[in-house]
Amino acid sequence: MTEVTAVSPISTDPSRRARLAEFWYYFSENRGAVIGLVFFSFLVLLALCAPLVAPHDPAIQFRESVLVPPFWQEGGQLQFLLGTDAVGRDMLSRLIYGTRFSLFVGVIVTTLALVGGILVGVVAGYFRGWIDTFIMRIMDIILAFPSLLLALVLVAVLGPGLTNAMIAIALVYQPHFVRLTRAAVMAEKTRDYVVAAKVAGAGNLRLMFRTILPNCMAPLIVQATLSFSSAILDAAALGFLGMGAQPPTPEWGTMLAEAREFILRAWWVVTLPGLAILLTVLAINLMGDGLRDALDPKLKRS
Amino acid sequence: MFRFFLGRLAVLIPTFIGVSIIAFSFIRLLPGDPVALLSGERVMSPERHAEISHQLGFDRPIVVQYLDYLWGVLRGDFGLSIVTKRPVIDQFFELFPATLELSLCAIAFAIVLGIPAGVIAALKRGSVIDQILMGTALVGFSMPIFWWGLLLIIVVSGILQWTPVSGRISLMFFFPSVTGFMLVDSLLSGQEGAFRSAFNHLILPTIVLGTIPLAVIARQTRSAMLEVLSEDYVRTARAKGLSTFRVVGIHALRNAMIPVVTTIGLQVGVMLAGAILTETIFSWPGIGKWLVDSVFRRDYAVIQGGLLIIAGIIMLVNLAVDLLYGLINPRIRH
């Protein structure tokens, strides 16, 4: 392997380190993306260390301190930095534990949709013919429904709960990955390197997943970040409608649903979980924009 | 153009059949006995069960049942609601104007603010204004709208007391529904203050439902404008000495609008999904709230019919957008 000494950020060095360096160069150009990454890393740490960081157990009800406001407001207690909810549970602890659920939803949904979408999309784009037509028609059918409505109905069929909500959302997101993978595979399939590999005797599976797929990853990665943030939003929306995670789970959308009746009395029980969702989604979308800039070769040239 | 239309239609028909199969099988996939679910009767004797089963046609082969269902759907028969015992399609047409009015206002709100914001950001690329506009757009794009609605209720309705919290019009007013659009009907009624009340009720739901389309349109307009502004014909127009207004307004904007029109068309699905949340928060008596309520009431006939009608609408709108796109941009036809 050669050392990375390139002056120009666009290196022709094929080594992994050089490619990573090039990627980082473009990614770090985007200030928002770096802020998003830092905040996202913070959230991941928070989720991992939730039991260590949270001041209280998220399920414990302090019956004598119900709807205590945050500490800076009159009547606030330092014991509950961000106040308590209607049954006296510590808001800060519940918000910290909520990070776990949201990030978990994002990871699982994106993984399911991405892996499923790649498998189906590669098959459709590689083999074409009737199998391609068949797959794409099914994807068109799924895309004909508004995603949240379809997810809502699927959860109604499967039964409310976080697991079923994740399955439903992953199913609804899958067509986007199928379409992207198929388009990318179709574009790469006729390139010389693929033909060369074929002539060298590579089988279908090897051609599909080792030769072609790695060159189709850029749009998929960008779509994956987008799905990650939308999955968090949709899971929270389902929780808000009462069809996602069920109480007393400290999931942010479910917390909002429980807090709705206190909307004009206790601003903190309504405002804080939503703010947590917004900041998390925003951080991921900022990263997504940075990724797109770093991975899109069209923008690099300009 | 006609061939293009036929081609799109050829794709649409199998998709619609697939959608109808999903709506049809939905009730049979649910845990529990579909006969009991559809009749809404929990406990019944075997004779009663057989009778209802025969009434609903469940004793026939599944293919015959499906074809019968499809034939009904094509004639506009979507079955009866389990809860109200009224035709699903009648209920749909009663509630649809409320959703349509809200969606039209929201998309108008998004276009009126989104396109100028995108154009300004593109013209001032890299400036503070661009950063503020696009930062705001990204926040809007990341917004959990159900929370955004609650937040607006707290601030605008609660603290400032500017707008009402829920519904379409104050209960003080009563007039016959002519068009189903509250803004129009209140004007037609001639009652003093009725239009103002209807308008005030629309403000917050419009903002909430319009936020994500607004952000998407602003971002899309900016990138389309940036692409067009670097084209040769724009440089030529500038070199000819045309005013910036003419160059941007006539030459650039017209071409930049092509992808934006598609984006606006694609927002219809987003709107219908957003209507589910927006209408729930503001107790807006439209399709979204109807469907959510039906999910909770286990009114499966309504869910089944509603799913199919909404998918049908989205497919028709997408077809219209495709055709429109084919008209503006002849290259796509091939």
UniProtKB/TrEMBL annotation, chain A:
Sorted alphabetically, which InterPro entries does this protein's record hold?
Answer: BP-dependent_transpt_permease (IPR050366), MetI-like (IPR000515), MetI-like_sf (IPR035906), OppC_N (IPR025966)
Highest taxon of source = Bacteria
List, alphabetically, the PROSITE patterns matched: ABC_TM1
Stated membrane topology is: Multi-pass membrane protein
**What SUPFAM superfamilies does the database record attribute to this sequence?**
MetI-like
- Tagged with keyword Membrane: yes
Q: Name one Pfam family in it.
A: OppC_N
What CDD domains does the entry give?
A: TM_PBP2 (cd06261)
Q: Where is the ABC transmembrane type-1 domain?
A: 99-288
Q: Where are the transmembrane segments?
A: 33-54, 101-127, 147-173, 216-242, 262-284
Q: Where is this protein localized, as stated in its record? A: Cell membrane
Q: Which UniProt keywords apply?
A: Cell membrane, Membrane, Peptide transport, Protein transport, Transmembrane, Transmembrane helix, Transport
Of which family is this protein a member?
Belongs to the binding-protein-dependent transport system permease family.
**Record-given protein name:** Dipeptide transport system permease protein
TrEMBL record, chain B:
Would you say which domain of life the source belongs to?
A: Bacteria
User: Transmembrane ranges?
Assistant: 9-30, 100-123, 135-163, 169-188, 256-282, 302-328
What keywords were assigned to this record? Cell membrane, Membrane, Transmembrane, Transmembrane helix, Transport
Q: Subcellular localization, per the record?
A: Cell membrane
- List the protein's name: Dipeptide transport system permease protein
Family matches, as InterPro entries: BPD_transp_1_N, MetI-like, MetI-like_sf
Name the species this protein comes from.
Sinorhizobium kostiense
What's this protein's family per the entry?
Answer: Belongs to the binding-protein-dependent transport system permease family.
| Principal location class | membrane
Instruction: Tell me the membrane topology, using the record's own terms.
Output: Multi-pass membrane protein
Ranges for domain ABC transmembrane type-1 come to 96-325
Q: Name residues in a coiled coil.
A: none
